[in-house]
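Long-time lurker, first post. I've been practising inverse folding by hand and with some scripts of my own, and I keep getting stuck on stretches where the structure tokens seem ambiguous. Below is the full token string for one chain I'm working on. Before anyone asks, I'm not after the true native sequence, just a reasonable design that respects the backbone. If someone could post their per-position residues I'd love to compare against what I wrote down in my notebook.
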């Protein structure tokens, strides 16, 4: 019976091509705008850590004085990061900060390439955030204690420097210093870049990783944010390392609630020790452990404006459906004489209603597919004309299912009243006119 109704629906659409096209266009525009805003919202609010999201915690310390900012800072001092590494409670833990510089190979014909996303970190960074290697591996634990000039490349940078070949064992130059490549990562591009949100949540990810133990030796500059709550005269890098400036991030992996509680207590004991040294002078001095969802919320990765836009697009879709309702009512009532004849020869109200629901569902499907095309074009325009990040404007695969479902459901809602009107009309009126 369904296929019979489907055949009738297709014939009905072909009988009134202009009217049907107007209805399909109306719902497609509403779906296109809704899917565009919904896609951006979904891409911005996605938790890229997956199953580990409840086990990864950003460590925040209230180390500033009583007259400084009244919140936990996103970052901590270098000295606090080094001290926190002494805890053996976390399964994994990593301090880090962003730097940059010129990278080149041993080939004299290869011009230096500026890399603005270089991550200074330890080897726990890779298993903690779930990075996988296609060649080699991370530097071993000994490098985090006794610095050696070793690096890990991303797949993207490896393609730039070595045409994607296995470069493990080869030498690159970072800021004119030779480093040995020990590993090359598989493609990795978390969106948002949750582990360091200082310079934006979306965009290019890190391309080069160097050992944290080299920081005091090479005196890497911070290419991220540096926050200070009091005046300090810093004349050299050693003073920067012991200053109260906040410029490093610290993440830990805590697998159980008991581990979380134990680690929080350990950090609080550390804070008490530091108070005896004249640090952490604020009465609010404490630690905050934020999992991924909390971290994204704290940093307002998804602006409130995006939620408002999703709501407004839904209202626009409703306006489109109201227009479609009027057009459906006009179309269905025009066919009332035909429906009256079918009722007279035995078709029930339920069958007439079902036939019209199949018809509006078919128009909804067409509108949903056309709406996907509108959404794809809109996202491409936002990328090209307004320089939005491709990681945000990429049409998510789930939208290919969501769009038709929303469109069909919306079309059915719009079609209920017109279908009810025509199937409850007294057929005798039209039989007499015949």
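-- Answer (accepted) --
I ran through it position by position. Result:
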């Amino acid at each position: 019976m369904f296929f019979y109704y489907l055949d009738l629906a297709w014939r009905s659409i072909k009988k009134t091509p202009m009217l049907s096209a107007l209805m399909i266009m109306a719902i497609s525009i509403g779906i296109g705008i809704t899917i565009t805003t919904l896609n951006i919202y979904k891409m911005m609010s996605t938790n890229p850590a997956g199953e580990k999201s409840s086990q990864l915690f950003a460590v925040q310390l209230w180390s500033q004085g009583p007259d400084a900012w009244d919140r936990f800072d996103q970052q901590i001092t270098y000295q606090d990061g080094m001290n926190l590494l002494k805890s053996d409670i976390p399964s994994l833990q990593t301090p880090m900060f962003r730097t940059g510089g010129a990278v080149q190979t041993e080939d004299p014909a290869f011009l230096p390439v500026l890399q603005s996303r270089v991550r200074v970190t330890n080897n726990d960074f890779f298993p903690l955030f779930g990075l996988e290697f296609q060649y080699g591996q991370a530097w071993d634990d000994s490098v985090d204690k006794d610095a050696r000039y070793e690096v890990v490349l991303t797949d993207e940078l490896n393609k730039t420097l070595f045409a994607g070949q296995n470069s493990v064992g080869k030498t690159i130059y970072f800021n004119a210093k030779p480093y040995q490549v020990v590993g090359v990562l598989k493609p990795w591009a978390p969106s948002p870049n949750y582990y360091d949100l200082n310079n934006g949540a979306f965009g290019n990810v890190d391309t080069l990783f160097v050992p944290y133990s080299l920081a005091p030796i090479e005196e890497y500059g911070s290419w991220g944010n540096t926050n200070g709550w009091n005046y300090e005269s810093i004349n050299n890098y050693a003073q920067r390392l012991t200053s109260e400036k906040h410029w490093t991030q610290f993440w830990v992996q805590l697998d159980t609630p008991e581990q979380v509680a134990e680690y929080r207590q350990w950090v609080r004991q550390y804070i008490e020790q530091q108070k005896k040294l004249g640090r952490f002078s604020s009465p609010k001095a404490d630690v905050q452990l934020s999992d991924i969802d909390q971290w994204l919320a704290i940093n307002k990765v998804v602006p409130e404006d995006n939620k408002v836009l999703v709501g407004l697009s839904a209202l626009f879709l409703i306006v489109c459906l109201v227009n479609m309702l009027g057009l459906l009512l006009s179309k269905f009532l025009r066919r009332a004489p035909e429906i009256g004849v079918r009722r007279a020869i035995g078709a029930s109200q339920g069958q007439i209603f079902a036939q019209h629901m199949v018809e509006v569902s078919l128009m909804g499907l067409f509108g949903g597919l056309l709406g996907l095309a509108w959404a794809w074009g809109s996202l491409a325009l936002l990328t090209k004309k307004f320089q939005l990040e491709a990681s945000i404007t990429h049409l998510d695969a789930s939208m290919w299912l969501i769009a038709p479902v929303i469109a069909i459901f919306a079309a059915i809602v719009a079609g209920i009243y017109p279908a009810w009107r025509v199937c409850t009309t007294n057929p005798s009126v039209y039989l007499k006119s015949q």
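A couple of notes from the structure itself: The CA atoms of residues 44 and 302 lie 6 Å apart. The two ends are 28 Å apart (CA to CA). Happy to go over any region you disagree with.
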